[in-house]
Amino acid sequence: MQPIIESFLDIPTSTFSHVVYDREGGRAAIIDPVLGFDPTSGKTSLAPIAPILALIKAQGLEVEWILETHAHADHLSAAPPLKDALGGKIGIGARIIEVQNTFSRLLNLGPDFAKDGSQFDHLFADGENFMVGALRACALDMPGHTPADMAFVIGEHIFVGDTLFMPDVGTARCDFPGGDAPALYRSIKRLLAFSPGTRLYLCHDYPPSGRAPCAFTTVAEERHANIHVNDAVSLEQFVSMRENRDKTLAMPQLMWPAIQVNIRAGQFPQPEHNGSRYLKLPIDAPAS
To answer: What is the tens place of the pLDDT at every residue in 132-170?
Structure first.
C-alpha cells in the first residue's frame, strides 16, 4: 500500500512540510511542520499550518504521528499546536538527547531543562518499524547535519529532512555543533542504496533562478546529478568540499530561537515571574 502525500511550502523559511496518509478518512503523519515566527517582534503565527489543518479536516484524517526529522535550526516547530488541535504523538530520533546536552551547555539552560528526550512522545531507534494507519514505516538514522537527523521510510518513499537537497542544490551543512561531514556522506550513501525510482521528499529547497521549488527528487537523479555527492564523488572529495563550503556560510537567521524551541519538542521555555516567555541569545560565545 502506497501513501498519499501532500506537501506544503513555507516560503519565508523555504521549508516543506508533508502530510502522509493511507486513505481518505484514514490515518496520517505530519512531517516537519512550521510555526510562523518573526524574530524582530517575537510574534508567532499559525498561518503556516492552516493549510495542513484544512487538509486534515477535508479528508477526515486521524493524525497518529507528528514527526520531526531533526531539531531544525532554520524554523520553529509547530508540533505542539498541531497536537493540541489534532492529537498524535510527537516523534524524533533518539539521538536528540545528544543535541539537547550540547545546546543545554551552550545556552546554559540549567538543571530544570530535561536532557533525556522526555519532551517528545517517542524517540525512534535506527531501523525501528512503525505504522501510519495501514502504511508500513521505518526510521533510519541519518547523522551528519546533526547527530540526531533521521529519515522516515513510508511505503516506497523516504522523507529525508536536511540530509539531501535537490541535485542542483547539493547537501546539508555540517558545521553546527555535532555536525560531521564523513558521517553525512555515509548517511547519504545509505539513502542512495535504495532503488533508483525511490522518491526522496525534502525538507527544504533553495532553487536557483528559473526553477520552481520542488518537494521531492529521486535516488536516480541524486546519484547522477547531485552537485556535491553524485556517484563519482569520493568520501575524501566530499569532506573537503563540505568543510570548505561550510566555512563560507552564515548562521541561519533563526538558529538560536529555533534550537531552543525545537529541542523542547516545539515548546517555548516556561514563563518567568511576570508571565512572559523569553529566548536566549549568546553573545560572543563559541558555537561548538
So the answer is: 999 999 999 999 999 999 999 999 999 999 999 999 999
| Rounded-to-integer distance, Cα 288 and Cα 261, Å | 19
Confidence of residue 1 (pLDDT cuts 50, 70, 90): confident
Q: What is the DSSP string of 213-279?
A: --SEEEHHHHHHH-TTTSTT--HHHHHHHHHHHHTTPPPPTTHHHHHHHHTTTTPPPPP-TTS----
Query: DSSP secondary-structure letter at 288?
Result: -
C-alpha pair distances (Å), 98 with each of 149, 213, 238, 285: 11, 32, 25, 20
Specify whether the CB–CB gap between 153 and 214 falls below 8 A. no
Q: The C-alpha cell of 278 is what? A: 523569553
Residues 6+ apart with CB under 8 A from 267: 80, 119, 261
Give the dihedral of Cα atoms 54, 252, 92, 276; nearest 10 deg: -70
> What domains does the chain contain, in order, with CATH numbers?
4-262 (3.60.15.10)
- Grid cell for residue 19: 502530510
For residues 95-109, one letter each, b for 16 or more C-beta atoms within 10 angstroms of the residue's C-beta and e for the rest, the string is bbbbbbebbbebbeb
29-47: pLDDT as tens digits: 999 999 999 999 999 999 9
Residue with cell 531539531: 71
